[in-house]
Amino acid sequence: xxxxxxxxxxxxxxxxVISAADLFSNSFLVKFKREVDSNEAHTVAKRNxxxxxxxxxxxxxxxxxxxxxLPVARTKRSVSHMRKLKVxxxxxTAVQQPGFVRVKRGYKPLKVENLVHNIQPHKDPTDPYFxxxxxxxxxxxxxxxxxxxxNVEAAWAQGVTGKNITTAIMDDGVDYMHPDLKYNYNxxxxxxxxxxxxxxxxxxxxxxxxxxxxxxxxxxxAARDNGICGVGVAYDSKIAGIxxxxxxxxxxxxxxxxxxxxxxxxxIYSASWGPTDDGKTVDGPRNATMRAIxxxxxxxxxxxxxxxxCAFRILCRKIQEVGQKDQDASDLGIxxxxxxxxxxxxxxxxxxxxx
Length: 355
Known about the structure:
Layout: E1 9-12, E2 24-32, H1 38-47, E3 51-55, E4 62-66, H2 79-86, E5 91-98, E6 103-104, H3 152-157, E7 166-171, E8 191-192, H4 212-221, E9 238-243, H5 252-259, E10 268-271, E11 273-274, H6 287-304, E12 308-309, E13 319-325, E14 331-332, E15 341-345
Parallel strand pairs: 1-10, 7-9, 7-10, 8-9, 12-13, 13-15
Antiparallel strand pairs: 2-4, 2-5, 3-4, 6-11, 13-14
Helix pairs in contact: 5-6
């Protein structure tokens, strides 16, 4: 991966965790004593019984190793495997990755029969569910305050529709064959970190549990005037699918590699997930993930003054918070000690049409 970083914006509804104490994966963060290429890293991994999954954040010193002889989750560290790596003459340190839990942000589905059809169709996108997307154009159709919306039509009128911008949806996958998304899908910028392949398609479940990422993608870049569902807030933009939220646990390497994936192709990283809202779960990014965020801040904000946002419940002086409002202007989500505040709509919108 190239070491040069492109300006990007990291959007997050909340990025905290529920602790999964004493859970360890079969993934290892290996740091070499010097820079090595992928072939040499592969040789070192193979002679120690591991598989090299590639560099971490484009580094030539840090690599992601997996041992397929270990269970994907266990309650004790594998001391013997750690020792084997550490005695290798080329390896400086090796850290077995602990597992932790990430939870998708919830939403409140709305019933079509409770909504009022009172938007002028000839002035608006012709997509059938646009009239229910109060956060794009709020006429009080859901009983909320009229005109309390994103005022996005003013931006559209100026030709600001997201063209040439790619947003990475870091989630449980994206249905990139959906007719409302397929023409706005950026395959080159996409990857599946849950299965380690370039096809971030959601894993099927009977209850549509893994439709969250597709819904988020629809809110961003669903096509306009195609007679399907609703319209994205940036309907001329591209979306990349980064599947990283569909495994029994989260690891620091999965999060870091997701947030650092293809920075030369991706402009915005969207992470719409967090902890159960129990008021007591407080956590933040681990070592590699924090380095991915800090690198984006240090290497990009200094050159372009672009914005990176997050909602970690920690002090992030240069990182901004993202929160939510519902149709009645009530604040939702969390607050962080940052300089700016960015608010977006609660997912209790008809964006749920992109299931």
